[in-house]
Design a protein that fits this description.
The protein is an alpha/beta fold and 579 residues long. The protein is built from 19 helices and 25 strands. The strands form four sheets. Strands 3-2-4-1-10-9-11-15 form an eight-stranded antiparallel sheet, with helices on one face. It has a seven-stranded antiparallel sheet with strand order 5-6-7-8-12-13-14. The radius of gyration is 25 Å and the shape is globular. The model has no long low-confidence stretch (mean pLDDT 94).
């Protein structure tokens, strides 16, 4: 969830760290902080956004430093709980992403030995443990500390008397960047793009010793080699490019993200896995869970293959019977719950496939094979173009299973997505912005599309929204319908069109204003609803995509009308790397 960054080399560390933290702020923005090695350890940390407090960090000195942007897990967001955290003497500083599950026990032990704690965080125990083991060799002290920690961590540590950073990871992401006489470390590659295209993905259990222009990686006490890989993203991909928000830019990039993912195709090994499966289980969280549900509806109806979809957060504790292909869907490739489920599937000898946007992420190293999305960097916390790229990847699996039946449909789908971007929805936005509650309804594959529309609405506009299968409203939620409760209904041609139209009339009879998404030219639907939003009259697979884009735009413009912070919605972070 949090983002960490480190730098050691020939430059002043502070500007590099601040810029890196800004790139990572989508991982958490409750508070931030930096520590550098000058004449001593110098620390600056503050609650709030980096842009509001970066001037205070400008006085830090040194060419070695670490930084952190926080999504709070232990202790409220304030100056004291912000990272970095230091030991009793202030000569050791650490930043940490993850959760130390046994921190209470460690804290009691450390306090019993005379240590004084300043914060409520789990992270501070790491600094005090390093202090106990430190005798001038920071690497040895960190190595002696790690066995005491239970949970997940990506840690960067510095000490005042050495130009050195020790990096360690276990179940939290950490990437090294290799520059010219300088080394970078970060939670993901986005802070590295301006400085180097060469990266190293550390693996669980790795400890790296970083000095200017040199790095050594250890695993289990032995020096190991990790491959240097080239980043295929560029820094321009992480800029707004003239758009008001990253989210709007990324909505407009969806035709490209879908097309590029389709164009990349799938490998022969992945195709074989798909063709040999007699059952498919997908594990995912949040938006990825919705794309998996869409796949279930489409695959079972079009390919006649049984598909099970499980929430990653439930899978670990209520593991279903597993048989056949297991697919983990994760934009970041670091979703803790999804990774745990994937490991359990492997332990049960299921063939495993990862669908992710991040090459080199943990999920790619756990799974047998990877189907890489081609969305590029996604900075907005609310998933848009990664959602579209996930659908592209899943539709490729569906198409492979159907032996290429949908080649033509998928190759031109990006054009229809582009058409929806021009749709006028101002009247619908006004209706939603004035509401306290909004229902989203659909049937078949459009049921999870409606769930995703509701998720987008609530996470960025803070308008309470729920997604339902349309027929389920009569089983309770109808009690909530009033003339102040808009319903967004997806009603397209197909076997459920007539019953969906009937459901809409039932909602209208309860005086609920209805916004309907239907195919262009559907005059009958337009006449029975309050607001009609047309989408292209195309194949079912494409209608799923275009309806999704229309709902993203509805949520985005509603949030703007309500003056919400679209790219950084409250309490949320993009990558959920803790359970």
């Amino acid at each position: 969830m949090c983002g960490i960054v480190g730098y050691i080399g020939r430059r002043d560390a502070t500007p590099v760290l601040i810029q890196g933290l800004k790139r990572l702020e989508y991982r958490g923005y409750d508070s931030f902080g930096l520590a550098t090695v000058g004449s001593a350890i110098e620390v600056y940390k503050k609650a709030g956004r980096i842009s509001d407090g970066e001037a205070g960090a400008a006085g830090l000195h040194g060419c070695t430093g670490i930084g952190h942007t926080r999504w709070a897990t232990h202790g409220e967001p304030n100056d004291i709980n912000a990272h970095p955290h230091t030991d009793c003497t202030g000569t050791i500083a650490v930043v940490h992403n993850g959760v130390i599950e046994n921190y209470r026990e460690l804290k009691r032990q450390l306090e019993g030995r005379g240590h004084t704690f300043r914060s409520e965080t789990d992270t501070e125990v790491i600094a005090h443990l390093i202090e106990e083991h430190y005798e001038g060799d920071l690497l040895s002290a960190v190595n002696a500390t790690l066995p005491h920690l239970k949970g997940s961590y990506a840690v960067l540590a510095i000490a005042e008397d050495t130009q050195r950073i020790i990096a360690a990871r276990d179940a939290s992401p950490l990437v090294l960047g290799v520059g010219d006489a300088e080394i970078f470390a970060a939670s993901d590659m986005t802070p590295l793009l301006e400085y180097t295209e060469r990266v190293i993905y550390l693996e669980d259990g790795d400890v790296a010793d970083l000095t200017p222009g040199r790095f050594t990686i250890f695993h289990g006490g032995r020096e190991v080699e990790r491959p240097v890989e080239l980043i295929n993203w560029c820094v321009e991909d992480t800029r707004k490019g003239g758009f008001a928000h990253y989210m709007l830019k990324e909505i407009y990039e969806q035709p490209q993200s879908f097309y590029e993912t389709i164009r990349a195709g799938i490998s022969d090994k992945v195709r074989q896995m798909v063709m040999e499966a007699d059952e498919i289980t997908l594990v995912a969280c949040g938006t990825s869970y919705h794309t998996a549900l869409i796949f279930k509806y489409l695959a079972e109806s079009l390919c006649c293959i049984p598909v099970r979809v499980e929430m990653g957060s439930e899978f670990k504790y209520f593991t279903p019977p597993l048989h056949g292909l297991a697919i983990a869907v994760s934009q970041s490739g670091e979703t803790a719950d999804t990774i745990a489920a994937l490991k359990m599937a492997k332990a049960r000898n299921c063939p495993t496939l990862a669908i992710t946007n991040m090459q080199g992420s943990t999920v790619t190293r756990v799974a047998d094979e990877t189907l890489l999305m081609r969305a590029g960097p996604e900075i907005g916390v609310a998933a848009t173009k990664s959602y579209m790229a996930q659908l592209a990847a899943l539709m490729q699996i569906l198409n492979a299973r159907c032996e290429g039946t949908f080649d033509e449909v998928l190759s031109h789908a990006h054009l229809a997505i582009g058409d929806v971007l021009l749709q006028e929805i101002r009247e619908a936005v006004g209706l939603c912005a004035g509401a306290d509650h909004v229902f989203f309804v659909g049937r078949g594959a459009f049921y999870p599309v409606s769930m995703e529309g509701a998720l987008k609405m609530k996470e960025i506009s803070y308008v309470h929204a729920e997604g339902y299968a349309a027929g389920e409203l009569k089983h309770g939620p109808f009690a909530l319908l009033t003339d102040e409760t808009p319903v967004v209904a997806i009603c397209t041609p197909g076997p459920t069109y007539d019953v969906m139209a009937s459901n809409i009339k039932e909602m209208k009879a309860r005086k609920a204003p209805v916004i309907a998404l239907g195919v262009a030219g559907d005059k009958e639907l337009a006449e029975i609803v309050d607001i009609f939003i047309p989408i292209p009259n195309t194949h079912l697979l494409v209608q799923v995509l275009t309806a999704s884009v229309a709902l993203q735009l509805l949520a985005y413009h509603t949030a703007c009308a309500l003056q919400r912070d679209v790219d950084k919605p409250r309490n949320l972070a993009k990558s959920v790397t803790v359970e």
